Amino acid sequence: AVPGIADGDSRPLYPVICAGMAAIGFIPLALKTNRMYNALYLFNNIKESWVSREALSGLLFIFSAAANYIWPHGVLEGLAVLSAAGFLVSQGFMPYQGKAVSAWRHNRLPWLLISAGLYGGAGFLTASVGFPEAAGPGYIFIAVLILSCAIINAGLWISHIRYVITAYSRNRYPAPFSPIYGMKTVFVGHILPMMLLLVPACSLYRTSGITWVDAAVTIGAAVLMIAFSAYQKIKVVKTFSGLMPLALSFPADRGHKGD
Phi and psi at residue 49, in whole multiples of 5°? Predict the structure, then answer.
């Protein structure tokens, strides 16, 4: 079996990989302040700034995930999970809090970004968990978790596309995409990865167990999920930015729920 959570003698590497990627992401943020110690000012406004909350959550996640890999403990694992959730939520609400682009101050935006982050995380989990000789309760739970992330993200993505098309049509502008575009992206980004994951899932019930072909298919599905998550974040921010010149009714208060 590929090393992963199925092996009793080996610990999963995906928390450490994710912590390392988060650490790499903080390097340009620190360098942007010209002097490394100026980055400490990021933590000055945790009560009001989502940027400060993201920085704090990210650092907590990096250290707790790395520490839990070296010294496994339930407290460290729980801290890693909570800080990762805080990091994800902070990233979703940062554009929403910003004042530079008023169209970003729409309550659809943070949930779309958060769900895209969860779906990308499900892709990393898919590629990292390893393959057992038979399906156990842990893998059934992971399968349900991945499928849930896909369904939620697909639903929010379709809702976003419908909202943008309606907003453009009300202002008599051509929409940047059509309903067919939504169907195509949902197929490539959600349905196809889930169909690919059926291949190793069915192999779990064969006497021969998982093959390297199954592993390759699983990695392919994970790559599709991660790539679509990144694409979705970019597309969501760009389409909300494109709504600005349309003179839509975006009231200043953040309680606007749209259509």
Answer: -105, 125
> What values do phi and psi take at 175, rounded to 5?
-70, 150
Residue 53 phi/psi, 5-degree rounding, is -65, -35
* Burial of 59 (C-beta count, 10 Å sphere; 0-12/13-18/19+): middle
Determine contact, residues 222/124, Cβ cutoff 8 Å: yes
- Euclidean distance between CA atoms 43 and 45, whole angstroms: 6
Query: Rg of the Cα trace of the chain?
Result: 20
Q: How far apart are CA 14 and CA 20, in angstroms?
A: 10
pLDDT of 147-159, one tens digit each? 999 999 999 999 8
| CA–CA dist 91, 118 (Å, integer) | 12
Q: Sorting pLDDT into bands at 50, 70 and 90, what band is 206?
A: low
Number of H helices, E strands in the chain: 8, 0
How does DSSP classify residue 244? G
Provide the whole-model pTM: 0.76
Condensed to tens digits (0 to 9), the pLDDT of residues 47-71 reads: 777 778 888 888 899 889 888 888 8
